[in-house]
Amino acid sequence: MKIFVTGVGGQLGHDVVNELAKRGHSVTGSDIAPQYSGIKDGTAVEKANYISLDITDKAAVEKTITELSPDAVVHCAAWTAVDAAEDEENRAKVFAINADGTQNIAGACKAVDAKMVYISTDYVFDGQGTEPWTADQKDYKPLNVYGESKLKGELAVSGTLEKYFIVRIAWVFGLNGKNFIKTMLNVGMTHDKVRVVNDQIGTPTYTLDLARLLADMVESDKYGYYHATNEGGYISWYDFTKEIYRQAGYTTVVEPVTTAEYGLSKAARPFNSRLDKSKLKQNGFAPLPDWKDALCRYLKEIDVK
Questions:
Q1: What is the DSSP letter of 272?
Q2: Which pTM value belongs to this model?
Q3: What is the structure's pLDDT at 23?
Q4: DSSP secondary-structure letter at 287?
Q5: Per residue in 58-87, pLDDT tens?
Q6: Which of 56, 150, 154, 290 is most buried by its number of CB atoms within 10 A?
Q7: What CATH superfamily classification does 2-175+203-230+274-289 receive?
């Protein structure tokens, strides 16, 4: 298959290109930078065809996808700075990228009859209660600007295409770029004690594992909405931090606090990020491995163990 991947300078796009190339697909990657600007690790993403593309430029998106005429597009590009999205000066840009940019991609996919994978988030829900959110639930009530923009992206895809996968993920970590694990490891090296919230519940997602699932999806026609995080049960950020330090061999003390006590975030965060992933098995997709196993493999990849 011929596949176009956006956002290859980010955590997920990097791994998606590598996984697709490993399977023998013809992959072209894109991001807004003039040249590939992600991690230089000698993998396929550096050797793949690269196109500099601003997804908010509708004409450029149409030209690029029309000329490539891919069989599928995996749309990983997004504004993901959740707190910065709340700043008034950023709001228009957030929606231009996450909503309008996604609409541009979806429209171009329709024109060339390409299937599309759109990466969404648990933030499209209001995060209340304790029941896991199912993939086909439609009672959206995003708490913040980022969530609103990603929901608009979802609606752009589902309203434009029939051949689409909308995949909601949460608590993402990967080799390329910043993430919670890298932050907590850095903090743990310089602090004897850290405070971490224990009332936001969800499950981490390792981009390396997710990339394999997305490749499986692209190779299928089992379209629709899905939830995809690693297995291993639902945890808090506090639980996650404790396990990060345990596996990394850190002695840093982790102190549990409520979101209200922590009180540093501009954007409201969902308390309930439990995502029901049962639809994956129902449609024959292999679930992602246990998050503790994913963390162990990740720490080895970044040379912590």
A1: B
A2: 0.94
A3: 94
A4: P
A5: 999 999 999 999 999 999 999 988 889 899
A6: 150
A7: NAD(P)-binding Rossmann-like Domain (3.40.50.720)
